[in-house]
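Recap from last week: sequence in, structure out.
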Amino acid sequence: MAPKQSSSSKAAAMPSAPLISTDPVLTAAPPPWHSVVLVGVLSAFFVQTIPSLDELDRVATVQRFTRILFPTLVPSLMGLCYIRTAVALLIWGTSFYLVCFSPGWEQSTGYQKGSRLRIVPNRVSGIKTMFPFTSWSWNLLGLSFTLNAYIAYSAALATHNNPDGTSLEQSVHPWILRLALLCWECAAPFTLLVAAVIRYVIWPSVLRAKDGDTANLKHVRNVLMHNVNVVLAVSETFGLSGLSTVPSHVGVAPLIGLIYVVFSWSMTTSWNEPAHGPQFIYFFLDTTMPGYAPSVALLALLAVLILFYAVFGVSEPLLRALDGTSYGLAHAAVATLLCASVCRFRD
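Predicted structure tokens:
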């Protein structure tokens, strides 16, 4: 007869079961004091950088939105309008489908070691599909392309009615131009931020999880919102109009990001049943992490966002340097390199 195994040997031979936290379920996850102070200080600072109306009017011109880099590919302003309209319809159509027809999806946030939150499936459906920052960024890009298409359309009509171009700048209301520029200056860097966070932070985190299932990240909606969004924004800058950001307006995009942080704090009990405790869609916004980790995560996101804002800010002098290159190959190379640095489609 085979020797009888000891209880310790049996335990070693059995597959390890997932550890279940014995800590009591939290009823709330308020942000730590240092994160509240950080968000307050950053908000106060960036509010001071909001451009004045005179500054906006100086740079938010019809000409800025209607420049055509390659007339052989986009021969007219109406053609530019059609392209931008098609992009806007793609974005709004995707959001409309997610809200009204999609069954939604289940998402289990992979909280990091030290978190006091429970990893449970969170059902995201209906209007809640518009609550992740990815959706905020996606819809803001849609608004940007919608306004840009309108500007191109108005300029096309003005050019047709007045070929001398004397009324071009008067063809669009100043507030449309102001809003269009501010939307672009937020939407463009947000596309790179969303894609980079997915590629370098969330995707590796999912792969490290027990199941390692990245099917949700490969879904069509995520391919659109995490990768195609970058292609659309980069194509506008390096393929269509050369639209860039203004360095002195750098504070606008972080303000939107800070608003989302506060929104995320207010949504912790809305993603699931109270029995499961507070939840976050993004693990790096987890307010229960020990020490200064929540504030460090916010500063890291801010640094990356400013970097990507600068990428679109330097595009204008970069495009001037690329002028005269044959067939736009240099433009295509820069755009491809930028997309390849942040996009991810597979494990």
